[in-house]
Amino acid sequence: MTTETVEAPRSAQKARRSTNLEKWGWIYMRVSGVVLVVLIFGHLFVNLVAGEGVSAIDFAFVAGKWADPFYVVWDTLLLWLALIHGANGMRTIINDYAYRPLLRRLLQLALLGSTVVLLILGTLVIYTFDPCPVGADPSLLPSFCGAGQ
């Protein structure tokens, strides 16, 4: 009786040599999901339970929160993790349901573009937010901004 070895398929050889992006996407979804649960419930607690409830959320409330670097980092993490988590989920849906390669590629590029634009704009809003800009028309500023600015 002779024993012959069957050579591994090319796809298995390629998988051993390259990074498995699907595996890392799967791991990211699980880890970011757990972190997002903590961030979201913390966000809801601070905004709705710890203060005066939803009636207290206004421009001054956000300005006060974003004056503290802790909340700037908290909201930045929430923005980035949630957007990338959602985009990764949409990418999976596109891969599952877009059968034509050109359509799949176009949808993935549109998803990537919109995700990048939203991440940039959201991050800019968080880090450049100034409730009392110097030289602004005093009639347009909130009441908590000093008149001497």
UniProtKB/TrEMBL annotation:
Cell compartment(s), UniProt: Membrane
Keyword Mitochondrion appears in the UniProt entry: no
UniProt cofactor(s): heme
Record has Transit peptide as a keyword: no
Keyword list, A-Z: Heme, Iron, Membrane, Metal-binding, Transmembrane, Transmembrane helix
Residues passing through the membrane, by range: 27-50, 70-88, 109-129
Record function comment: Membrane-anchoring subunit of succinate dehydrogenase (SDH).
Name assigned to this protein: Succinate dehydrogenase hydrophobic membrane anchor subunit
Lineage summary: Bacteria, Pseudomonadati, Pseudomonadota, Gammaproteobacteria, Lysobacterales
